[in-house]
Amino acid sequence: MEGMNTVRRNAYCKLNLTLDVLGRAAGYHMLDSLAVTVDLSDKVILTKRRDDKISIRMHGAGSELLLPERNNAFIAARRFQEKFRTAGVDITVWKNIPMAAGLGGSSADSAAVIAGMGALFSVKDRAALKELANECGSDTAYLLTGGLARLRGRGEQISPLPFRKLFFVILLPAEGVSTAEAFAKFDELGLPGGKRTEEAVSLFENAPAWAAKCFGNDLYPAAKTLCPAVEEAYLTAKALSPLGVSMTGSGSAVFALFETRELALWAASKVTKFRTVVAESVLPNFTKIRSPFALGEGEGEEE
User: Residue 253 maps to which CATH number?
Assistant: First the structure.
């Protein structure tokens, strides 16, 4: 049970099943991506203060070294306070999502802070919360609600899609990739952007296994140039004979999609060089979902 003055949130990360770079506008790269939230998450705890101060404590994954002024969760709390004229909060984040992996961990933490402060201070204006989230990072508004969605523009144009229970193995190279450096390298390489997202979205409703053949990421050539372990992880994942494989975000994490959790667990057991995580797609509201691959089965397990 949440107390009157404390809320706890799971900050779920995301996988970009596709990521097309469509050019630039107003100084930003324009994207088209099919994304899904999975059950790898940070834990965020917020406690209301009587004064206007905001504090943050980070635990795990090297996050203790982050300065508050560079910590997206802290920045999100400060902007929430300024926008809605609230008291301060104490924030504790237990990091489980690897950093610099393209999994959207910092955006997930920001989204959890915004949702948590909304609950603490009874702010229910969803449009205002989404507007605030868009100010805090490209994926933050999407991660407020999660699920399966098409993301366009800078990620602020969100088109939810019917949710699917999906099973992944995520491969995590030891080295991370800087998002800024990945986009700079993409520009330097002068590669054309893809158009795979449109086809993947059209296939996903009735033929998710075929949609997996459309998985791909325009930033992959840049990321593997910056971090050779990305390509090694990709080839390792592809050798597991998944339905589809790609890199998420700007890397360095790579994922492979499988028909069932059992197959994902088996595949993960075959990977020895990289840390792996077996993950399932997740909805924050924990809806029961049937696996699109599980013929003859009953409803999926409750999250």
Answer: 3.30.70.890
